[in-house]
Amino acid sequence: MVFTAPDGERLDTPERLAVISGTVGDVYDLEKVVNPLDAALGGAEEDPADTPRKNAPVDPQAGSDQQAPPYQPLVVDGAPVPGVLVSSDGQVALFQFQFTVASTSLTDDDVSSVVEVVERAEQGTGITVLPSDSLKALEIPVGIGEVIGLAVAALVLVLTLGSLIAAGLPLITALVGVGIGVGGAYALSTVVEMNSATPVLGLMVGLAVGIDYALFVVNRQRRLILDRGLTAREAAGRAVGTAGSAVFFAGLTVLIALTALTVIGIATLSTMALVAASTVALAVLIALSLLPALLGLVGERICSDKARGRRRAKEDAESHSVADHWVKTVIRFRWPVIAGVVAILGVMAIPAASMNLGIPSGATANQDTAARQSYEAVSQGFGEGFNGPLLVTAEPTGTAGRVTPELTAKLITGFQDRDDIVLATPVGINEAGDLAVFSIIPTSGPSDEATSDLVKSLRERDSAIAQDNQVQLGVTGFTAIGIDMSDKIASVLPLYLGIIIVLSVLILMVVFRSVVVPIKATAGFLLSILATFGATTAVFQWGWVSELFGFDTGGPLMSFMPIIVTGILYGLAMDYEVFLVSSMREAHIHGQAARPSVVHGFDHASRVVVAAAIIMVAVFSGFIFSHDIMIKQVGFALAAGILIDAFIVRLTLVPALMAVFDDRAWWLPPGSTGYCRTSTSRATSS
To answer: DSSP secondary structure string, 134-154?
Structure first.
């Protein structure tokens, strides 16, 4: 928490000192806030005279020849106010305190009660109170942008299906699925720790796939009614048996991609992945159970007489459609198209080489927010390192195994003798006296590479401080955790990609009875995901067109973002591959040559794939304008990824490659045909 005085004034006037001191005391009186005076007094009463006291004060400059820092404790009536530092110019005061529980266990009321108490200091004093980013109340980052995205999805459904009744079914089933999935996530949040992004990710993914999966089934039923004259009941059964199989396999690829995130071993990421996976599983189950029941209730009203008449009138004109012209042009100029797509996506991927991962902080918040103003006030008054303190633990490794006052003083001196540490202060010693905790303030900011190097240096077993004092050092804290997450995710990303690629290639081999199609699909995805990361880096890290997306400062990308986006986009990309190429496969097994089957399949499937992609882009784009930078980054990456993969890779590169491979696209090694036949016979009919 930061207190600032108006320009040209100071905080250390008698009136303002009294207000700040009283406010700090009120905060320490709150139930879940640690009062350092109580802790120190308790340690003095419990420990014998020859035992080091918990929270025993140690002069931070003891044994050091460093110059006095540009700040000092805030003193009222000759006594320092616990936890408060004031800058030398008296303009800024920094109030640091601890909660009795982990920050992830705090409720909205716990956080807001602290903010409300401190904000009383503003009344009639000229003081400005700036809560830091760590005191931002938990909010559900859903607003008007998401509503607009859903409205666009509804409009696309109406235009695609040509009926309000037909368009309403995918919306109803998707909302039921996310209602159950996200509602269940919030219910579980009372017993399972999850951040604010977890249910929103489930909402984002559940809405998109829920609408799309239902769209594929409803569109298939309408095609059977309009093209083959089936009754609504018979067409519904055929649609679930054909498009439903494709929905099952498509959903399975998404589930594999999401559940594979648990191999990374980060609890928060695993929770996010499992919540999103549950909404996808619900979307598949509802598309195969509730949706057919609703189709039975709607009956023949799913297609009006007017729609049936229009369909008969358009049958002769289908070969002159935009899709038909597009795919024939792509096939005719297949080599230039392939080269052009690879070149464009390759250029888009260039910024990804400089992608910097981290945890968004107040430094990257918009300039008009309290979090950003607090960050800048602390940086100017005390130094950027005060925005990302580290907690360092020290355990003696010698025979004595005790933390003595002399050892504590030597450790503090050792810490402060380093050029990359500004300040080291003791936090406390455990009751057994064999573990000490220190607060370390780096010279660099939380997202700087120098801070990451400091954390790694302190953890080295052969560091000078550890060897000279015979201790084992550990480093934790919000900043260190963010660094650890980034490093761990970067190290396991290749393993994760390997798992989902191998499993998905096997599934696609079963679906398409082909080796070329799964490999081609995966190679196309690698192009699209690299281009997606490049675009996201350029916008959110370099700050290109940032004003368009509602933020004014670039910064590191959220550590979780690349691996979450990779998992979701891989599953969705394979969805489009299944629905597009299965239609080509159906034409091929019914006797058409390789290239005519590509044209025929594209003509029949491209419209629904385009509609599905636009719906997903609309849903994901709604989250770009969230106030939460993490949700904003994920929403942008998913929307950009769908645009790139659906329109550049699936609808452009895929037909060109299928034309190049010709009949070889359907080659399968001898001996595996029988294994794949049963599963393929239904999925390729969608």
So the answer is: GGPPP-----HHHHHHHHHHH
